[in-house]
Please model this.
Amino acid sequence: MDTLEEAAARVRRGDTAAFQSIVTSTSDSLVRLSARILGNVSDAEDVVQESMVKAYRALVAEQFDGRSSVKTWLYRIVTHGSIDALRKRRRERTTSDEGIEAGWDGLALAEARLALQELTDWLAALPEEQRVAIVLKSVEGLSTPEIAEILECSEGAVEQRLVRARATLRQKRSGS
Model:
């Protein structure tokens, strides 16, 4: 099995079928990331699909310069796509009570589903920049430098967003 970097290099050399290994190895985590930002899986799947098209086109056009890892680059594309989708949703002023779909991650227990919905509600209440930072750090397990690269900001700005997000979440937890 190719590493993401090897698969990307193969795509750049004209082996377009190699992109499937990138999709296969990253789709689940990218959908999870986007779902946490957007609040539902259906929209997340759309964002990831659009992001994969952008990534494929960028690889074929040799627009990916390799300064970051392929994983970080894909996370950046999906994060920005998710933020754009959130902004579009706000502009259209449509609200969705859909939330995270109950069977999405195989959780069968009602308590687990309730906890997942509560987490989704708490994340949705955070300002966009804080929500994205906390999802990338706490859900996806990325490092502060990786998050800074994805969000195209300083590590200090990431830390500040994380501190504020955690404080807000602590306040919500104690108020519940």
Q: What stands out?
A: The mean pLDDT is 85.
